[in-house]
Amino acid sequence: MHLLIMRHGEAGWHSLDQQRALTDAGRLASASVAKKIAASPWRPDSIWCSPLIRAKQTAAIVSEVLNCPVEEQSFITPDDDPGECLNHLLDVHCHNLMLISHMPLVGALSTLLVDGHRRGIPFMTSQAVLLDMPIAGPGCADLRDQFLP
Known about the structure:
The relative contact order is 0.24. The chain is built from four helices and six strands, in the order E-H-E-H-E-H-E-H-E-E. The protein has a single domain (2-147), classed as Rossmann fold (3-Layer(aba) Sandwich), CATH 3.40.50. By secondary structure, the protein is of the alpha/beta class.
């Protein structure tokens, strides 16, 4: 399986974290990364996104560029356990999946899959990484590519 993990685009501030929407810069950066992915050999078959507004808006932009369906997933919000996401990845039957979520989840999930720990690496907004996972499990993935805004 190839897994693209992307952090949502830059979001503005709001009194409720769940209501934060993308800025104009966030929309442009997300579209730029989506175009780079479209030009690569790593196009996803499906996109999972967090239910928070900024992730859904990022997923809509990416979906339009890549012509790819989006499924909202409740277990990939900022503070969710990357182990729960891994449990769901075990049941995935597509070969190329993209996940659009938030820090610290994207960083913790990436290091769980590549290095077998959850300390996490930083992701800039709109950044995406491509992991190659022959099987889904801690430490079973290799970092193959990254896409920067």
